Amino acid sequence: MARLPQELIDTVVMEVKGKPDLQACSLAAWKFVPASQSSLFRRMYLEWDSSSRTAPAFERTRLFFQDHPHLTLYVRDLTLDIPKSHQDQAILEIVLRMLRNLERLAINGHAQNWDDLLTDLTYTISCTISLPSLQRLHLLRILRLPASVVLHAASCVRVLSLDRITPQSLRDIPAHIPPNTQLENLILPWCLATNALIRACDFLLTPQNLRRLSVEVRDTGYYRPPIVASAAHLRHLQLECGISSIPFDLPLLPNLRSMVLVLPRLVGTEGLWTLPENLSSTIVTLPAVSPRLEALHITIRISTFQTAPTWQDHIPFPLFAARSYRDQLPALRDIQCCFGYFDTFMPCSGIWFELALQSFIELMESQMPAPFHDGILTVGRASHRSRVNYLDHLP
């Protein structure tokens, strides 16, 4: 063992995934310790029970890192809740200052106002966002977040998601802002506060170097400006539609490689289920809009139901009716169609869902006969998410 290079030992230990196995490795030999500890402490959670007035885990973490400061160097991925008491916020601020190598930070504000948080904590959060190592930032449920904080985040990290974020009523940045050159992946889920956020943080609509964009399509049409601004560079686009079936108005996306469409099923004549019209109209434009497309993922969502569904559509999409689609989309190698609920936290199972899924499989295979026969079409159920670990589903 002593003759093996440390690099080889580290490589072997880094392949161990389970926490009990890593703990056993750290106790097996002193040469196993660095790599074991690096894996054990790479991802950390600081969770706070909103039903409790205190967050004892925060104090235990502070004491632990004060006794073992070298372990703070291993923490790369931190997911945290902001507690409500200023005492616990002060402890969290101390812990954050210890972590200087973070690459991913996810913060759940639990619907607290930014101005009500401890001043030292908000300052430390801003300093953490400025860390050269930080690449991914996810902000969830923070009220009255200053536009300057959003601008700072968009200028520092490469991946940014803003979910249920409301801005301050008074914009605290000048009207003319230099273009952002850092952000590559922007995720803007729709909620009641999104329109206000976009008005206060309009610089999010004019990114120059986005490679990946995920937005929800609503009547306000705020989704289109960032697509247009980043059209030359965009490689991945995800569009989600609510209950309505709003037509997509997409510009030319010459470098787009992957497109994800999340759409509602509609109800046609005589109560028959039908695919949304904007799906058909988008597929028609794919060769002109995204000629280098490699992957197309479609998810159709439904509400709960208790009767066997019957689909109205059985006419193939013209683009995919014959193998000539290969001439129009020569790079296309993967089409995935998924079927699930609007509530992504609801398991896609049960007798009625299985019936609906089987009829959906038959429908999509008939809608895209050429890709089906070419073996590039797969149809199945949508993935199930966990409410508890929502932030884990983000990049």
Question: Could you characterize what this model shows?
Answer:
This protein has 395 residues and is an alpha/beta fold. Among the domains are: 1-40; 235-395, no CATH class. It contains 13 helices and 14 strands. It has helices at residues 6-14, 19-28, 33-40, 56-67, 86-98, 119-129, 147-156, 194-200, 224-229, 277-289, 325-328, 351-367, 369-374; strands spanning 43-46, 77-81, 104-113, 136-145, 159-167, 185-188, 212-217, 236-241, 258-264, 266-267, 273-274, 295-302, 334-341, 377-381. Strand 10 (266-267) and strand 11 form a beta hairpin. Helix 1 runs parallel beside helix 3 and helix 5 packs parallel to helix 6 (119-129). The two termini are 38 Å apart. The relative contact order is 0.06.
Key phrases:
395 residues, alpha/beta, 12-stranded parallel β-sheet, two-stranded antiparallel ribbon, globular, LRR_dom_sf
Strand-helix topology:
Layout (H helix, E strand, L loop, with lengths): L5 H9 L4 H10 L4 H8 L2 E4 L9 H12 L9 E5 L4 H13 L5 E10 L5 H11 L6 E10 L1 H10 L2 E9 L17 E4 L5 H7 L11 E6 L6 H6 L6 E6 L16 E7 L1 E2 L5 E2 L2 H13 L5 E8 L22 H4 L5 E8 L9 H17 L1 H6 L2 E5 L14
